[in-house]
Amino acid sequence: MIRNRESLATTDAEELALECVEAGIDAATPRRVVDAAVESSGEWLRIADDEYDLSRYERVLVVGGGNAAGHAAAAIEDVLGDRIDDGLVVTDNPVDTDVVRTAPGGHPVPTAEGVESTRRLLELAAEAGAEDLVLAPITGGGSALLAVPADPVGLEDLQQLTESLLDAGATIHEINAVRKHLSAIKGGRLAERFGDATVAGLLFSDVAGDDRSVIASGPLVADGTTYADAVAVLEEYGIDAPDRVERRLRGGVDGDYPETPGPSDPAFETVRTSVIASNDTALSAAAETAQYRGFEPLRLGSRIRGEAREAAKALVGIAESAAATGTPIEPPAVLLSGGETTVTIRGDGTGGPNQEFALSAALELARSGEVRSGDEGGETAQDDERARVTVVSMDTDGIDGNASAAGALVSSRTVADERRARAALADNDATAYLDARDALVETGATTTNVNDLRVIVVEAP
């Protein structure tokens, strides 16, 4: 999975860190997840805790979107075979399928190709009737990939606004509150298109807390946000929105456009959704790997958020405390965390949240030096008395921010020139520095997207 693993793993700790992230990503791949969550026996279909009598339906359709939607569709075909009659998923990571068509889209910024693909998807959705069962794989990346602007908004407006919100460091909840009110598919509007059809949503969560209304901007889920909430987000971050976006949002506040469907809307009466994969899926597998290798795992949670460089300082501090005092866990140990940190763009470099996390962590480790057990300072410790800390942070979809790398692997040895490293971080140019230090983790696009995964290995002195 990690293309440059051989050159990255120069120590046992680095080998373990990479093994943990690979195990986490593998556990969240659609084939493994669908095999565990979807089962067909005779005329019965089980999806998580829900069961469906296939004899009641004339057609079975597969309709969805996201980074992993193509692979999820292929896995669903493996389970149901020729019982599937038709389908279409929008994705940027296509795979060979027998019945379900894959259509292209753009991520993290929507594209004209994606808009055309999503229009085709909405046409298929509108054809579904009361005698149809729709299986809808919705995965991370769906917010950008499933894109049809609502009148009078144009594609270029969505592109400009998405980039502005990402650059401003807005959270995914805030970004999606805006996108839902500029879309013909998000915020429960896809559920409206399905009409009376029975819909089973298979969700792969890439948001902290697995809020179903936020995953891919909740195309199948009731929306709890309003036009007023969307306007408030733009005002909070000082976003200079395109005129047509302003007209749509202000018009919505004034009642000129209908609100997204809420919890009492009849569109959701025949819709059920199940989160079948999440960041916790990856964390559990990583923890099992660490334990198998003789390291005690400590899960710090799947909801780590905030500015990436600041989150790194906090988590490295916990690791250093474990190394020096055995609190909150005695080495050898592996600290695991997930979630989605953000980056406020101030420079013009290349990178992403995971690379900024890694570079900030490397600076902290270099500044504090290796930590001696029982001594917070550790300046005089000999090599065999030091508890060493190794950090890997990566996006489970294999692409971090505007860089092609998935993330980076660092230690106290990574930063050779603190001044240059800090300058790179200030310019949001973590990629260049980490690449020069042979620290980037290269995977290419994976077949899943369940948010960020961070592994911190604390060796025993």
UniProtKB/TrEMBL annotation:
Domain MOFRL positions: 334-452
Pfam families: DUF4147 (PF13660), MOFRL (PF05161)
SUPFAM superfamilies according to UniProt: GckA/TtuD-like
Domain MOFRL-associated as annotated: residue spans: 17-249
Keywords assigned by UniProt, alphabetized: Pyruvate
Keyword rRNA-binding: no
Record flagged with keyword Mitochondrion: no
Molecular function per GO: glycerate kinase activity
Gene Ontology annotations for the cellular component aspect, listed alphabetically: cytoplasm
Entry protein name: Hydroxypyruvate reductase
